[in-house]
Write a structure and sequence with these properties.
CATH architecture of the largest domain: Sandwich
Radius of gyration: 21 Å
Strand content: 15-25%
CATH superfamily of the largest domain: Regulatory protein AraC
Oligomer: single chain
Strand order of the largest sheet: 12-7-4-9-2-13
Helix content: 40-55%
Number of domains: 2
Largest sheet: 6 strands, mixed
CATH class of the largest domain: Mainly Beta
CATH topology of the largest domain: Jelly Rolls
Order of helices and strands: EEEEEEEEEEHEEHHHHHHHHHEH
Shape: globular
């Protein structure tokens, strides 16, 4: 599997993106597309997606991340007749290809396992060709913010690039933490516990239940979890639930009551009160502010317009330098 290292100290440009939806009663094929010097990231959020990329059939599973490299050719491997939703976005950056034996990467994983705040990978984004997202709700929230920002008129379009950088860092963080947990590097004790909580989230999950699961004293678990993860177990559980609710607010038409129930809150009023405490706005306001994404479907394929900021001669020069550097890799 290919690993791409993107330098955060060099320009990174968002090109375009959206949320594709195919309805159950429609039939769709991905039209043949030839990429230029840009990456495309694809994240299915409802059902799996089959594509042919560079003459190889690829199955991208729900809540997995797939990175299509520059200069690739994409087409359908089969007709889609089922319900399907996936995020997609294109970006351009300078990059180099690395392996898991790369010394800087190995050092960075060691530091991530020790929860150091300033690692050897501080100025890098590491993206694999393909991996399962362990925090898809968080990634969905960031993608929606990026796509929403793209639709808002501002005097500069460069804010899209900075939303993109935050998104890429979060995807890289998800992947690197996964590598760290599954390597032979010694990791902090609560890394596995935090992942277990995320997978087993429920309405009645609490400190006692978690402590019993791992055979630990509840007071000891509470103390070490906050020390290593930076927040208490109760707050961590709430954060996971709210992130899941945010994802449903921006990707479904479910009512607030239905979302509260599916996110494991006792009742809608309790959910709305906690949501506003943590986010400063109500769930309905959050849905309104983050639902203006570029939506395309089997009935309408998106165009690929050149972003407006590339009218600037200085940015065109930077873009040319990125393309020239990539060809040297």
């Amino acid at each position: 599997m290919m690993l791409y290292e993107i330098d955060l100290n060099k320009p990174i440009f968002f090109l375009w993106g959206g949320l594709f939806e195919n309805k159950k009663d429609h039939s769709w094929r991905h039209k043949r597309t030839e990429h230029s010097e840009n990456f495309e990231a694809i994240i299915p959020i409802k059902n799996d997606l089959e594509l042919n990329i560079n003459d190889e059939d690829v199955l991208i599973k729900e809540n997995h991340f797939y990175l299509v490299p520059p200069n690739a050719t994409i087409r359908s491997s089969s007709r889609v007749d089922h319900e399907l939703s996936f995020y997609w976005f294109h970006f351009i950056s300078s990059y180099k290809i690395v392996t898991q034996d790369d010394e800087k990467l190995k050092q960075g994983l060691q530091e991530i396992g020790s929860l150091e705040s300033n690692t050897s990978l501080n100025n890098s984004v590491i993206l694999p060709t393909y991996f399962v997202l362990h925090h898809p709700e968080k990634i969905s929230i960031l993608i929606n913010q990026l796509l929403n920002n793209e639709k808002i008129y501002q005097y500069t379009q460069r804010s899209n690039d900075f939303f993109l950088i935050l998104l890429l860092i979060s995807i890289s963080d998800d992947y690197l933490k996964y590598l760290s947990r599954n390597s032979k590097i010694k990791v902090k004790k609560t890394a596995l516990i935090a992942e277990w909580i995320r997978v087993n989230i429920s309405g009645d999950l609490n400190l006692i239940t978690i402590a019993n699961q791992f055979g630990l004293n509840p007071n000891y678990l509470s103390r070490i979890f906050k020390k290593e993860q930076g927040l208490g177990i109760k707050e961590y559980i709430l954060t996971i639930k709210l992130d899941y609710a945010k994802r449903m607010l921006t990707t479904t038409n479910l009512s607030i009551n239905e979302i509260a129930e599916q996110a494991f809150f006792y009742d809608a009023k309790h959910f709305m009160r906690l949501f506003k405490q943590k986010n400063g706005i109500t769930p309905s306001q959050y849905r309104e502010e983050n639902s203006h994404t570029n939506l395309n479907s089997s009935m309408m394929d998106p165009s690929s317009p050149l972003p407006r900021q590339f009218g600037n001669e200085g940015l065109k020069k930077l873009l040319f330098e990125i393309i020239k550097e990539n060809k040297r890799q």
